Amino acid sequence: MLVLIGVLLVIVGFAIRLNPLLVVTISGIVTALLGGMSPLEILNAFGSGFSSSRSVTIFVVVLPVIGLIERFGLQEQAKALISKLARLTTGRVLLGYLVIRQITAALGLTSIGGHAQTVRPLVFPMAEGAALRRYGTVPDKVREKIKGHSAAADNVGVFFGEDVFVAVGSILLITTFVDTTYGLHLEPLQLAVWAIPTAICAFLIHGFRLLRLDRTLDAAVKEARAEETAAAHVSPAGGMA
Amino acid sequence: MINVESIYWLIGLLFVGWAFLIARDATHPRRWGSSAFWGLLGLCFFYGTAVEAKTAPAWVLGIAVLVLVALASTGLLGDGRSKTTSEEQRTVHAGKFGNKLFIPALTLPVVTVIIVLLAPVLKIGSTPLIDPTHTTLVALGIGAIAAAVVGVAILRPKNKLAPVFEGRRILETIGWAALLPQMLSTLGILFTQAGVGTAVGTLAKGVLPSGSLIAAVVVYCVGMFIFTVLMGNGFAAFPIMTAAIGWPVLVQGFHGNPAIVFAIGMLAGFCGTLCTPMAANFNLVPSALLEMKNKYGVITAQVATGVPLLAANIALMYFLAFHHA
After folding, report:
1. Which residue among B47, B171, B301 sits closest to A149, beta carbon to beta carbon?
2. Which of B16, B305, B322 should one mutate to test binding to chain A, selecting the residue with the greatest count of A CBs within 10 A?
3. How many helices (H) and strands (E) does chain A have?
4. Which residues fall within 8 angstroms of residue B47, CB to CB, at 6 or more apart?
5. pLDDT at A166 over 90
6. pLDDT digit string (tens) for B178-201?
7. Residue partners of A177: CB distance under 8 A and separation at least 6
8. Transmembrane region positions (chain A) (predicted)?
9. ipTM value of the model?
10. Cα distance between residue A94 and residue A151, in whole Å
11. A195 inside 8 A of chain B by CB
């Protein structure tokens, strides 16, 4: 039970907003010492942990091309394109992306999107472009909210899409673990099929929230404008675009 | 054969290249600390190959990783805000290139998917051209190179290395968060080795009232959720909660359909992934990448989906996995 102190350290460290790298490292060392590991074993664990997890840093390879097309105005072009489509609101842009992301992930095409590949260069600028068309200018607080929801649409789509595809890591982990531990013979396809009800629920819940997002943003823009006008001591400018 | 190690070497090469650019940038506010951080990180990607092959000791890499953490957490790492085009220039460029700008962005997924689909038949003699165990990673690496080449061909930047310069700009806005996902995965390994999993499993068993199906389903799903929040991914939570409750209580005790119990149990864990800073590559790297002021802003947007979806999973498991008399 003593090893749970390490978990507590993580929670406290994140809560008081220390640098997460430091929190994770210290918690790892403390937990390992409490668990009776020697300093050499701990260093070995850090080393082999790093080398075996290099795949999560794969997003780095797409930074050059994304940076290049940003330099030549990709985000501006994405905004301009969306602002021509009058019916597209921020919520509907993100709903569209959620649909695409979930379906492609269910077909096994998880690498088609991602935060570096699609969210930063395309999805967020389009969502912001729709907001610019609706509000004229976008207050910082609202922009922040749109950023959060752009990344969220990607995560929800990929998490609850990928498990419908049979050859995904989590499905294979389940079958290997239960087959070797309990002597079962589960087919990946059986598991993938039973991921469908949750996938549908995820789409309904998140899709509903995205449809309501426009109203939330309307209210947030109004509030931010009221604050601005109050701060500037100017009489309220009436309705908004 | 193009194996996944060559992709890691590509990443290492990029980091070392960026460290070099930073070292040459006299206006950088944290010139030497930043250059040392990214350069050492790059070298770690090369050295990792030898560690995986068990031809070099892992503790050397362990020390290097601790040095990286020290550099990042003592404020020696900073954003050099490297030069790029202004918003006005970008608008002019966007007007000039129009929708051609999307071609490199689309080249990336298209090339990646084509390679993934073709990989099983691409062979030289009887050796596959692409490492069959890591097809997606290798395909993404090749796709990224192809997209950069297409980008340079279409946009014709004055300096052909513009993608490398611009990549550095984005990397520096991400900063130390780029290393966090790997550190969290190491933490997961240390937690497991130190027995955190067994301790949590014992706790979960302790709170379970005997004989109630709905209580067992709730403890299994909520346990998957909480444990995923703590560990950052459902993969670490699954073996522990399944050994504690999923298998002995839900499948053996209440005769639940194992495929349904395990599939939905894992997805209950995924709801936790939406709500935790421990899942750095999904929740913290994007907020850095999008240059958000609040680094927990992505999680804030996701909690209201994660929690109701957990409830939905509990209901789905209760009604679908068991024969109700």
Report:
1. B301
2. B305
3. 11, 0
4. A51, B56, B60, B61, B64
5. no
6. 998 889 888 878 887 888 877 877
7. B238, B239, B242
8. 56-74, 164-184, 191-211
9. 0.87
10. 10
11. yes
Facing residue for A20 by CB, picked from B107, B180, B262: B180
Residue found under tokens 């947030």: A220
Task: Supply the pTM of this predicted model.
Answer: 0.84
Tell whether A26 lies on the interface with B, counting CB pairs under 8 A: no
DSSP B98: G
| Residues from chain A contacting residue B104 (CB–CB below 8 Å) | 65, 68-69
Residue B124 corresponds to which tokens in the numbers above?
A: 């030289």
CB nearest A44 (choices: B59, B147, B284) = B59
Instruction: List the beta bridge partners of residue B127.
Output: B124
Average pLDDT, chain A: 88
Q: Chain B closest CA to A137's CA: distance in Å? A: 15
> Are residues A113 and B109 in contact, defined by beta-carbon separation less than 8 angstroms?
yes
Q: What 3-state class would DSSP assign to A238?
A: coil
A121 touching chain B per CB within 8 A: yes
- Residue located via tokens 């302790």: B206
Give the model's pLDDT for residue B325.
Answer: 59
CB-hemisphere CA count at 13 Å for B207? Answer: 12
CA distance B275 to B270: 9
Query: Which stretches of chain B are DSSP H helices?
Result: 4-23, 31-52, 58-73, 87-97, 102-118, 135-155, 162-174, 180-194, 196-206, 213-231, 234-241, 258-273, 280-283, 285-289, 297-320
> Which of B122, B125, B159 shows the shortest CA–CA distance to B138?
B122
Q: Verify whether the Cβ–Cβ distance B52 to A51 is below 8 Å.
A: yes
Q: Is the pLDDT of residue B257 over 90?
A: yes
Please judge whether A155 and B302 are an interchain contact, meaning their C-beta atoms are less than 8 angstroms apart. Answer: yes
C-alpha A9 chain-centroid distance? 25
Give yes or no for A76 touching B (CB within 8 A): yes
Among chain B residues, the shortest Cα distance to A63 is held by B167
pLDDT bin (cut points 50, 70, 90) of residue B40 is: very high
| Residue B223 identity (one-letter amino acid) | G
Taken as a whole, chain A contains a residue count of: 241
Question: Rounded to an integer, what distance in angstroms lies between the CA atom of residue A206 and that of residue A211?
Answer: 9
Of B89, B94, B247, the CB nearest to A182: B247
A239 — pLDDT class (breaks 50, 70, 90): very low
pLDDT band, very low/low/confident/very high, at A4 (cuts 50, 70, 90): confident
